[in-house]
Amino acid sequence: MCGIAGIISRKDRNVSSQPLNRMLTSQEHRGPDAGYGVSFRRQSTGAFAAGRRHSADALAAGLEPAPVWLGHRRLSILDLSDKSAQPLRRGDLHIVFNGELFNYIELRSELTALGEHFETSGDTEVLLASYRHWGAGCLERFNGIFAFAIFDASRGSLFAARDPFGVKPFHYAVTHDFLIFASEIKAISASGLVLRKWDPDVASAYLSYALTTAPQGRTFFENIRQIPPGHCLTLASPDDEPSVTRYYAPRITETPRSLHELVDEGAGLIRQSCRIRMRSDRDVGLCLSSGIDSANVAAALVAEGIAPECYSIDAASSSMLDEFPLIMALADKLGLHVNPIRHPDAIPTADIVRYMLFNDEPSLFWGSYNQFHLYREMRKLGVIVSMSGHGGDELFCGYQRYYPAVVRDMLAQRRIVSLIWWCLRQSRHLMQDRRTIRSTWDSYSHPLGWANDYAHDIAALHLKHTIADPEEWISTFVGASSWGEQQQKSLFTYELQYLLRDADRNSMAHGIEERVPLLDTRLYEFCASVPLKDLCQDGYLKGLARQLFPAIPESLRFHQIKRGLYTDISSKLPQLQADLMPLVHRSPLLRELVDLQKLPQQLPGIVWWRLCSLAVLDVSGIEEWTAQTPLHRLVDDEMAERIGGVPSGTGRTAVIRHVLDEGLSYLEPGALHGLAETVGLIESAAIPGCIIEAGCALGGSTMVLATAKAKERPLHVFDVFGCIPPPGSNDGEEARARFAVIAAGESTGLNGKRYYGYEPDLLKNVQDNFVALGLPPAEHGITFVPGLYENTLYPSGPVALAHIDCDWYQSVKTCLERIAPHISPGGRMIIDDYDHYSGCRRAVDEFLEASNGQFIRERYARVHLVRTKADGQETDVHRPGD
């Protein structure tokens, strides 16, 4: 397993190696063995020439800029030699690959017969040769877990794909200037080439309805997407738009078979899947619980003559969670050795936060923390590759919440006698599960039932933002008229998808590859073809799965307690809430979604968990917790400092906190962080030009811009440095009412201070504020230009970024007309008052309509106008009298 990364310029813009290095560094945990990058430069023929492979250290030092970069962090599993290091080349094709092709030996033999020669003994070269021979059709031949990208240097095209079940992640972002991809969202953010933007609908659906996945490849971030399971992405050339299509089409035919035949075929398929998943140049371990899924994997391996080392949670201190006696009974029967991993008695808040951060997106609840802990302890014992039983419930119909689909399916097929018999045989279990059945019957039957189930939580949250059509949104994930429909949703859009995301992040956080032998397309197509009455043999959910390997003790095969790798940290929730509540109030996202002042103290713990999960991810991103130190290197004390939020020095977070504490800006925290992040973007993308700020008040926003920019980049600040001029005829009543208060001397300042417009020497005050912060203007390329914009604002060179905060129509119009011709392609103008004053909004809308597509509007904390292309040769705006 590995971490992949890539940057493709859509405007032939050259980018340094440092954004790629940051992407790889943020994924170091995925590939601790090595890190490399390759650049590609466009030739006069239109093709790209590949540079040599550079180490991570060389990338960090800074290499010659190029329009295309591929990068890879390696966890060596097959062919441990440097020959299989990536990016790997075969002719004009270059690949970065995360995952394994388990049938690579068979594919190598087939390709060798077709004339291919191989220099490595691993699977990456086989994948690349397969693509060269069969194109996208190669995907139909693969049996594995994978996310890869192949760059064709002769055409400048990209082909990327994700395995049928989505075991391995592939995230990407498309901006006006770049296509950027990586294994993890945190890597795309680390590039500095994408402004992180939460998707309020996805975040709201999570808060409201506990939905941790989103439809159609969406993520929790509006401008970062994922290739859905079983899909591929094609980019014909760097300047084209990528297209995403489904390639996996399951072949399902229901053929009459006896129970004996079904048991033989099912067990045989699991044995075959386990056999090829043992192909590794590292030892393979097994995560063993008392559930039938991992037990079947263990029994299949033993049937193949393989006795893996097993690793299990020993929760002896918690009788409700302890499944270790059952695990030991299974191990003794199968002749396996189990390494007990102690369930942690004390869990520091810092470690729970670390677990949240590794997951990139919010988790459903705290249950998978145990998995995070288990893999960490396994890595300490030297485990690099592990198997698990993920997928068994979705394949063999194992969850109690599937009862509605089971009943409806049998009724629809007029199997009344079978249903009665099934219910009679299941009666003990139905009684045992009656609370679960009652609570999930409506919610898993139809979307409205799910929505109603969360109505109380939603009312308590006092949400400011809700999704427009909850039923349509929820219907993507739950609500099925048959078992087949339920299985499709469970596998490809909901339960399995968030479980696989958790498993990938929890294992790769510690550099462990997790293999999931039950998620083999052959086994899925077999299970989907088995009638439900046979899947639920003898009145048991997963009845067929319980018959496959008689070597498993009957007490385990037919016991109904479902624990898995669950962690109960509910007793920790009060302390967790107290520790993380400051983050909830520091989160701009939660302030946008929730009326925090009305939150009751007695919210259910699971709702607090959702609030805290969003707060941790939001605050850690805007405050750049891991910008300097990769997440896996942060110790508890450093994590606790970030949670406590005690910034020091003149870093971005410290300056923003200083600006807010001292009342130096009317911008809220989210807007200030957005300014800093946008400056980071223009620096990472090497967009040429100065920074302009039009309207600085007490200089707080200027301080943020100054801190975020490169020291040598000029920052020009234009302001009247006194009371603002009156609004004009194109401004609305709200502007005139506001100015009337200012003109009457009745405007109040921030933090109880005097309104800045009444200061007798505002310019000196602003300059003194900079000196007091340790940012002497002259030493940081900052110049202040007092006066009306119409008399002072005459840019003479390229502008990378302009922050326009000047309220009224005419002031905004003047700034746009004077600055826009100088904005570099890819540069931006941030409009502060678009949503606050109608005159500002009118000026911007008129400007965009007249810009002939040179600028487009994007929304973040503020409205951005992005320069997409230049219209002829840039000309200076002439001063009167020139």
Description of the structure:
- The protein is α/β, with parallel strands linked by helices and 882 residues long.
- Helices cover 40% and strands 16% of the residues.
- It is built from 35 helices and 26 strands.
- Helix 30 links the parallel strand 20 and strand 21.
- Helix 7 crosses helix 8 and helix 28 packs antiparallel against helix 30.
- The chain is globular.
Q: What's the topology here?
A:
Blueprint (H helix, E strand, L loop, with lengths): L1 E8 L8 H9 L7 E9 L5 E3 L3 E2 H6 L6 E7 L13 E3 L2 E9 L2 H10 L10 H11 L9 E9 L4 E6 L8 E4 L3 E5 L2 H6 L9 H10 L15 E2 L4 E5 L7 E4 L12 H18 L7 E4 L4 H12 L5 E6 L9 H11 L3 E5 L6 H10 L10 H12 L4 E3 L4 H5 L6 H10 L3 H17 L1 H12 L1 H7 L1 H7 L8 H6 L7 H10 L2 H14 L4 E3 L5 H9 L2 H4 L18 H4 L15 H14 L1 H6 L11 H18 L13 H9 L7 H11 L6 H16 L5 E5 L5 H9 L6 E5 L13 H11 L18 H12 L8 E5 L2 H4 L6 E6 L4 H11 L3 E9 L6 H13 L4 E5 L3 E5 L15
Parallel strand pairs: 15-16, 15-18, 16-17, 18-19, 20-21, 20-23, 21-22, 23-24
Antiparallel strand pairs: 1-5, 1-11, 2-3, 2-4, 2-5, 6-7, 7-8, 8-9, 9-13, 10-11, 10-12, 13-14, 24-26, 25-26
Helix pairs in contact: 3-4, 7-8, 7-21, 10-27, 11-20, 15-16, 24-26, 28-29, 28-30, 29-30, 34-35
